[in-house]
TrEMBL record:
Main location: membrane
PROSITE patterns: ABC_TRANSPORTER_1, ABC_TRANSPORTER_2
InterPro entries according to UniProt: AAA+_ATPase (IPR003593), ABC_transporter-like_ATP-bd (IPR003439), ABC_transporter-like_CS (IPR017871), ABC_transpr_CbiO/EcfA_su (IPR015856), ECF_ABC_transporter_ATP-bd (IPR050095), P-loop_NTPase (IPR027417)
A Pfam family recorded for this sequence: ABC_tran
Protein name (Swiss-Prot/TrEMBL): ATP-binding cassette domain-containing protein
Organism in which the protein naturally occurs: Tumebacillus amylolyticus
Subcellular location(s) of the protein: Cell membrane
Molecular function as annotated in GO: ATP binding
């Protein structure tokens, strides 16, 4: 097989098994206003599939800039990111404010072009749920809102009711289908956004700090819905700063100033690999309660059988 064929076969194989692969991806933003009118400057991407606003600043993403270093007026906010999200994964993306989490989420969703590197997506539809519940509501009623994406996708009218109903029922909002969206709580609005994604048959859901404006009960219910979707085969990318949400993930990628500085399991993140220091300590993320209890027990000489991440796992570890 010649090199070209081999590469194509590998790519096809990849597209079957995987949803998103980022290889050497960098994203730059112009800091002094982009290149208006240039087809290559599309940092503020309007997509018919985007539910909500993507970036509101007057600067624009730079595409096709093959230069490696930041020059005057251009700032790289993601650099050399290699990350693979496989079908059915639940990956948490964490990092401080400004570390590049949302930018990464938007790149994964295809809403933001990369300046350098390759971003490959498999066949599945990728949808984003944004932080601000109000940013992604477009309909006046729950029903209208969930149908909005379907209209954009030109789904035949006769197919819409079944798809909208199934999606609303999945998130527990079917009874509210005629409600005015202004009467929904923040948590219900986020669930409505998820329903919109489901109606559009999203395979990959990217939650961009989607719980950060919610009360504890709404947070828990959004997490439950995400966990349920994951169980039924959806891929979940969960961007967060909450460490007790990180433990729900199968994998964690930590960003620091636009670079991936850790990738591994939550257990490896909070407890360290093979005796190494805990990456969460090194990166100054306070571990969740169960991890703190486990560490305190170990310090008093208690040998634990497992490394608990959730409160309900502490008993089993003793
Ligand atoms: N459209 C834009 N134009 C210019 N700079 C941008 C733009 N969007 C983001 N940035 C900058 O890129 C960096 C990364 O931003 P990003 O929103 O991805 O970080 P984040 O980790 O999601 O932060 P937060 O937790 O505050 O949402 C920040 O310094 C931000 O100011």
């Amino acid at each position: 097989m010649n090199a070209g064929k081999h590469e194509r076969a590998r790519t096809e194989e990849f597209a079957r098994v995987s949803e998103i692969q980022l290889k050497d991806v960098s994203v730059a933003f112009a800091t002094t206003g982009g290149t208006p009118g240039s087809s290559e400057a599309r940092g503020h991407v309007e997509s018919s599939e985007a539910r909500g606003s993507v970036g509101s600043s007057d600067v624009e993403g730079i595409v096709g800039n093959s230069g490696g270093s930041a020059k005057s007026g251009i700032r790289f906010v993601l650099q050399e990111v290699d990350l693979e999200v496989r079908r059915g994964d639940w990956i948490a993306i964490i990092g401080r404010n400004g570390s590049g989490k949302s930018t990464l989420g938007r790149v994964m969703a295809g809403l933001l072009p990369v300046s350098r590197g390759v971003c490959e997506r498999g066949d599945g539809r990728v949808q984003l749920v944004f932080q601000n519940p109000d940013a992604q509501i477009v309909g006046e009623t729950v029903w209208e809102d969930v149908c909005f994406g379907l209209e954009n996708l030109a789904v035949p009218t006769e197919e819409m009711p079944a798809r909208a109903e199934a999606a609303l029922s999945k998130v527990g909002l079917l009874e509210k289908k005629d409600a005015d969206v202004s009467t929904l709580s923040g948590g219900q609005k986020q669930l409505l956004a998820v329903a919109g994604c489901l109606a559009m048959q999203a395979e990959v859901l990217i939650f961009d700090e989607a719980t950060s404006m919610l009360d504890p009960e709404s947070r828990a219910s959004l997490l439950r819905v995400a966990a349920d979707l994951h169980l039924t085969g959806r891929t979940v990318v969960w961007i967060t700063q909450w460490m007790d949400e990180v433990v729900r993930a199968e994998r964690v990628a930590a960003l620091e100033t636009g670079r991936v500085v850790f990738e591994g399991t939550p257990e490896q993140f909070f407890y360290g690999r093979d005796g190494e220091d805990s990456p969460s300590d090194r990166l100054h993320f306070a571990p969740p309660y169960a991890v703190q209890v486990a560490r305190a027990l170990e310090q008093t000489g208690v040998a634990l059988r497992t490394r608990p991440l959730l409160p309900e796992q502490v008993g089993d570890a003793l």
